[in-house]
Amino acid sequence: MSVTQEYDLIVIGAGPAGENVADRAVKQGLTAAIVESELAGGECSYWACMPSKALLRPVAATGDARHVQGVAGATLEPAAVLDRRDAFASHWKDDGQVKWLVSAHVDFYRGQGRITGPKTVAVTGADPAELRARHAVAVTTGSGAMIPPVPGLAAARPWTSREATSAHKVPGRLAVIGGGVVGCELATAWQALGTRVTLIARGRLLGHAEEFAGQLVADGLRRAGVDVRAGVSATSVQRPAQGGPVTLELDDGTTVQADEVLAATGRTPRTGDLGLETVGLEPDSWLDVDDTLRVQGVDGGWLYAAGDVNHISLLTHMGKYQARICGDAIAARAHGQEPAVTAWADHSAVPQVIFTQPEVASVGPTAAQAQAAGRNIRVVDYDLGAVAGSKLFADGYTGQARMVVDEDRRTMIGATLAGPGAGELIHAATVAVAGEVPLDRLWHAVPSFPTMSEIWLRLLEAYGL
Q1: What are the sequence ranges of the domains in the chain?
Q2: Which candidate, 13, 8, 32, places its Cα nearest to that of 322?
Q3: Which of 239, 280, 41 is nearest to 142 (CA)?
Q4: Which phi-psi region, left, alpha or beta, contains residue 111 (left: φ > 0; alpha: ψ -120 to 50)?
Q5: For 428-464, what is each residue's pLDDT tens digit?
Q6: Residue 2: pLDDT band by 50, 70, 90 thresholds?
Q7: In whole angstroms, how far apart are CA 398 and each of 360, 385, 402, 424, 451?
């Protein structure tokens, strides 16, 4: 029987959120252990953010080059792109991440962590152990891809985001089910690498974003050669048992054949085998937390959850933001204090960049979301391509910008930009939204000329300042 090891904090899940919870707590004098059943670094490092953006950056670079007169010979070399992607995914080895954890004075246990009761975690696998927390346990196990209940889809061995970001062969044909961020980004990447892509979306593309952004992305995908079928759904999927092409039946009576099918329709919480039932919670459920990331409904208030697993904002940077506040809260309470800072940006100032062609960057609510929340708003639109910096960025630049203003407070509460390079513009809006900067004050933040940042001046002028 193994000896119980005691720590101030035990973290289950060594992705970006888990690493940051542990690091933040250790820096404030606590001891911490982290348990990971797969690779230290988590989904973002090996199957999501890093490999997908490593695939997409060459696509954007060559696309930008083709739209500047005088630049010639901008082509993609698929094998080289995949090699570069492999390097950014550390060839699916976590030595560097484990080394960092050790340097941060966080003990690492490789195996499945399972809560066995209040403040206790059993680890099975490579590093079996019985762990006890003096103060807190944090669940940071993230989310997994959801396979929609389309007849035959699960049996057809579909790609999820994991396979689509780590594949070592460019498929001849790819059918993508889902018109959200993952579907649109990976359709962009694989079409550019030589795959014939069909994108199947039951509604408009990027349904959570401003409508103009989804339309610009749909137009960009079609120009790139993607067969975009919006407003239709797959009703059945078949793949021969011995392997071979996949056939998708659609509800408009058409069929699609592909070599691979990607399911990109949402995420599910990775909470199925964590022992949540031992502390009165439902397995396979999202974890409800307060603004200090403490899980609700657990006696004693010792359980926390940061990142995707709490379903507030399924974005790596917001998971890391939550983790910093979570680590601070755990440390404060361990020292007999109440936390000085709580998480609120993950509700009202969430930035996101979608790396399609064109890029879509946003922060805060859309106009429709703000109206549904009962806000007194004014919407200000401006042609992003009309800014001098955009004209210099690309010949024939096409894009759009929108500012959502709270008229009662005269502050910007949301912004969306769609166009090449838009991702590098959004942090200015994030600062303004998070800082609740009055528009009259924002007027004095003079943008550099000739850059695309001049869009902020043009939006304020369009507002009437």
Answers
A1: 4-47+89-144+268-345, 154-263, 358-463
A2: 13
A3: 41
A4: left
A5: 999 999 999 999 999 999 999 999 999 999 999 999 9
A6: low
A7: 12, 5, 14, 16, 15
Helix, strand, coil shares of the chain as percentages rounded to 5? 35, 25, 40
Average pLDDT taken over every residue of the chain: 96
| 199: CB partners within 8 A, 6+ apart | 176, 179, 183, 184, 187, 205, 221, 226, 227, 228, 229
Contacts of 314 (CB under 8 A, 6+ apart): 143, 267, 308
Residue 214 Cα distances to 59, 220, 230, 400, angstroms: 19, 10, 11, 11
Thinking of the domain 154-263, which architecture would CATH place it in? 3-Layer(bba) Sandwich (3.50)
Using DSSP's 3-state secondary structure scheme, residue 170 falls into coil
C-beta atoms surrounding 95 within 10 Å: 11
**How many angstroms separate the CA atoms of 318 and 140, rounded?**
13
Burial classification of residue 372, based on how many CB atoms lie within 10 Å of its CB (0-12 exposed, 13-18 middle, 19 or more buried): exposed
CA atoms within 13 A on the CB side of 77: 5
4-47+89-144+268-345 with 154-263: one CATH topology? Answer: yes
Helix, strand or coil, per DSSP, at residue 352: strand
CATH of domain 4-47+89-144+268-345: 3.50.50.60
What are the strands, taking DSSP E only, across 75-187? 106-110, 112-117, 120-124, 129-139, 143-145, 173-177
User: What single letter denotes the amino acid at residue 72?
Assistant: A
**pLDDT value at residue 72:** 78
Rounded distance between C-alpha atoms, residue 147 and residue 48, angstroms: 17
Q: Radius of gyration over alpha carbons of the chain, in Å?
A: 23
* Length of the chain, in residues: 465
Residue type, 450: P
Taking each helix axis from N to C end, the angle separating 95-103 and 16-26, rounded to the nearest 10 degrees, works out to: 20
pLDDT at 343 exceeding the cut of 80: yes
Class of domain 358-463: alpha beta
